Amino acid sequence: MNAAGGAGIRLVLLGAPGAGKGTQAAEITKRLGLPHISTGDLLRVAIRDGSPLGRKVAAIVERGELVPDALIGEVMEERLSRRDAAGGFLLDGFPRTPAQADILDRMLVRRGQTLDRVILIEVPETEIVERLAGRRSCGRCGAVYHVRYNPPGVEGICDRCGSRLQQRPDDAEAVIKDRLRAYREQTAPLVARYEKAGLLVPVDGRGRPDEVFGRIAGGIPGLRE
């Protein structure tokens, strides 16, 4: 570890859709004082700002194509060059493929840096399908519910504004299974790569968020209480 208490700590967060990465990333970065760098967020901001890079990304997204690894690398290169990332970071959604892992390695070598840990949140696929397929959201106010874990007072109706709740198209069970299949194919080589390098911290993602965080903290110096 480069330094205690979060300074200089560089982390990658891996996990399938619905594994709870967003919740854990927020807690980790708050505790360590690190920027949470999400590929999805960066791409959305680049598109919204209309920068030359953002216009490239927007054109690809509008065609329904995947953003190429090289272009993802450009976006990440710009973000990691900012001052707040000099003292460490948590990457979420990058790297997603072996090619992106190679890009990240080259970025870090140029900066004289290394990764410290790769956190892998593991949740059985049957539970992930249940988590995602049961989500319902309000198109008017954005409130999110779950038919089992956080149901509204009246089935199918938003507690906040009374609008009818909807299931997101990508939360349909067949779509979820396709997303999980793609995740497995992309991530398996990364898991093997980082395990071989001694960087992988596998974490059981089942249970309450605080329980999962406790398991993560056990493998990350600076998070341990």
Description:
This protein is of the alpha/beta class and 225 residues long. The chain has a domain at 4-124 and 187-217: 3-Layer(aba) Sandwich (Rossmann fold), CATH 3.40.50. It is built from eight helices and eight strands. The strands form two sheets. A five-stranded parallel β-sheet has the order 2-3-1-4-8, sandwiched between helices. It is globular and about 55 Å long.
Low-confidence stretches: 1-6
CATH architecture tag of the domain at 4-124 and 187-217: 3-Layer(aba) Sandwich
**How many β-strand runs?**
8
H-E string: EHEHHHEHEHEEEHEH
The value of Rg in angstroms is 18 Å
CATH topology of the domain at 4-124 and 187-217, anyone? Rossmann fold
Strand order of the largest sheet: 2-3-1-4-8
CATH hierarchy, class of the domain at 4-124 and 187-217: Alpha Beta
Tell me the name of the CATH homologous superfamily of the domain at 4-124 and 187-217. Answer: P-loop containing nucleotide triphosphate hydrolases
Overall spatial form: globular
- As a percent range, the share of strand residues is 15-25%
Q: What share of the residues lie within helices?
A: 40-55%
Largest sheet: 5 strands, parallel
For the termini, the CA-CA separation is 17 Å
Structural class: alpha/beta
Average pLDDT, rounded to a whole number, is 90
Number of helices: 8
